[in-house]
Amino acid sequence: MASITLDKLAHSYLPNPQTDADFALKELDYKWEDGGAYALLGPSGCGKTTLLNIISGLLVPSKGHIRFDGQDVTHLQPEERNIAQVFQFPVIYDTMTVRQNLAFPLLNRHVPQDEITRRVNDMIEVLDLADKADRRARGLTADEKQKISLGRGLVRYDVNAILFDEPLTVIDPHMKWQLRTKLKDLHRQLGHTMIYVTHDQTEALTFADRVVVMYEGEVVQIGTPEELFNEPAHTFVGYFIGSPGMNVIPCEISGKTARVGDIQIGLSGGYAVTGAKTELGIRPEFVSLSSDSSGHPVQIEAVENIGRFKIVRASLQGHAINALLKENEEVPADPTLSFEAGRINVYENSHLVRPGA
Amino acid sequence: MDKPYNNKAWFLVIPVFLLVALSAIIPIMTVINYSFQDTFGNNQFFWAGTEWFQDVLHSDRFWNALGRNLVFSMIILSIEIPLGIAIALTMPKKGIWVPVCLVLMALPLLIPWNVVGTIWQIFGRADIGLLGHTIEQLGFEYNYASNVFDAWVTIILMDVWHWTSLVVLLCYAGLVSIPEAYYQAAKIDGASRWSVFRYIQLPKIRGVLIIAFLLRFMDSFMIYTEPFVLTGGGPGNSTTFMSIDLVKQAIGQFDLGPAAAMSLVYQLIVLTICYVFFTVMSNVGVDKPDARVED
């Protein structure tokens, strides 16, 4: 187990990267604490797998260093880094039994035989594979196979970190939930540093203590699930996390008011923003719909009932905006919108601006 | 609800049926017909019963040819399969050399059997052939026309040169389809090069290997053209394989009955061996559905 330090790390798949756009992973400084559960969250192609492969040693970064507990491992091979990785598609050794699969990494490391037997038996217990232990791995279901590939990492008690590369992609939905719970349990029991790559916000938010959100090769925010929800540091985070995502509306800001088209919206504090692109961000949860004349008149475009609540898609001064209604609330006849002032975030060039700054 | 029912589908099967009839059923029935009768030309046939079959099974000539065939196939398989796997493993998986390698590998496969025979027949001659001349110059006796060992070596070399590519291409196709994650996982598990081959590559190319094995077995077991072009089955009868013997009997001696009986026995042997190979190889390393489940 170890802490992982990323020191001015950047990677490009091109031989001679010139501009920022050439980098699949833009320069990044961060420290993953020992024993933490982290998620790397972002859409496909945002560089999260690149970052994971750099940590595991399958890729050597173009720039910067990576340290495990202070020791530079940038140029070490994967097997020398003592990490484990679980891939998107379950990787198992077809011809071996479940037991042999779990013993394989230990055999390769010349662990004494009785120690191997003991650890493999423990692991079979932990993974609930006791009834399949002597079956060949080939015929197992996808989630059992994925457990085995996880187990091959966990049998090595001293692994520095366990990396997950979208491990639940090929798992049936009802098994996903179980396997995720299992992962969380194992993290609590064994206390390994775990890094989990996913594009599924539910997986990221339920698994991780801290979530690293990536967008176009850049880390746009690192925070707890609450922070990501309440104060997205970037409009992308607001949009990507939450269902539906945050409303982002272009506006002009002067002091404590924001102007959107013809209407003025009160803010909780004063903002000193320059003339650059400014936007308001507010989550649909904090937009309320009523017939109160103090609100801002809107046109309703559509209402989607998704059971527990309804998503109202409306148009405010020509900008699309979503609001949530409880399932028993009706859309009023002459609807107006109002915002919870304290929940409005202001963005300048897509980045969060704090009031009074 | 009534199902619409008509016999139109039978019309659609007719082309296939005709094709199979012309290419397989009619020829085989003809052969079976010959194998139970004796003929002296003029389309006169006399019932012979199982006489020809007994003759074939009691003739040394047949057993000798069968033995030669089995030895030849075993040698061919034990060279071409490992060599083919080895070459496939060393071929690049991406980059500009991939098409170059593939074309080079495919070239021998495009050359007709008799041309291969002719090439090697000339290649191996001591007077004008590069191979034969070089060996002679190195001080070794080499003459495929008079020395049994030399004739066998030449035919085996010829076959290896001609057909190893097939094994290579099949294995290569199997190897490139292995996802990169397997190699990465093996790296992380600290697997040696040999373990990667034994536990990842070999199980993954198993399917194509079975095909390669069967194709090479069937083809080498039915070898005809190469030894025929090289020495016509000689020196003596040393390279007279079953197919050559068959042609000698059927066309050389015009013994249609014995030849037909022999070809049926030959066919049965090929079928049986292929079936056994396929069954055994498909079941190696595969669990029966409920086997070894602990309760």
Automatic annotation (TrEMBL), chain A:
Ranges in a coiled coil: none
InterPro entries named among the record's database cross-references: AAA+_ATPase, ABC_transporter-like_ATP-bd, ABC_transpr_FbpC, ABC_transpr_MalK/UgpC-like, Mo/tungstate-bd_C_term_dom, NA-bd_OB-fold, OB_MalK-like, P-loop_NTPase
Gene Ontology molecular-function annotations: ATP binding
Annotated SMART domains: AAA
UniProt-listed CDD domains: ABC_Carb_Solutes_like
Domain spans labelled ABC transporter: 4-241
Membrane topology: Peripheral membrane protein
Keywords, alphabetical: ATP-binding, Cell membrane, Membrane, Nucleotide-binding, Transport
Predominant localisation class: membrane
Location of the protein in the cell: Cell inner membrane
SUPFAM superfamilies recorded: MOP-like, P-loop containing nucleoside triphosphate hydrolases
Family: Belongs to the ABC transporter superfamily.
Stated name of the protein: ATP-binding cassette domain-containing protein
Record organism: Hoeflea alexandrii
Automatic annotation (TrEMBL), chain B:
TM annotation in the entry: 12-36, 70-89, 96-123, 204-224, 264-286
Signal peptide: none
Major localisation: membrane
UniProt domain ABC transmembrane type-1: residue ranges: 66-277
Keyword Membrane appears in the UniProt entry: yes
Listed SUPFAM superfamilies: MetI-like
Topology relative to the membrane: Multi-pass membrane protein
Coiled coil, from the record: none
Localization, UniProt: Cell membrane
Gene3D superfamilies: MetI-like
Domain of life according to the entry: Bacteria
Similarity comment text for this entry: Belongs to the binding-protein-dependent transport system permease family.
The protein's name: ABC transporter permease subunit
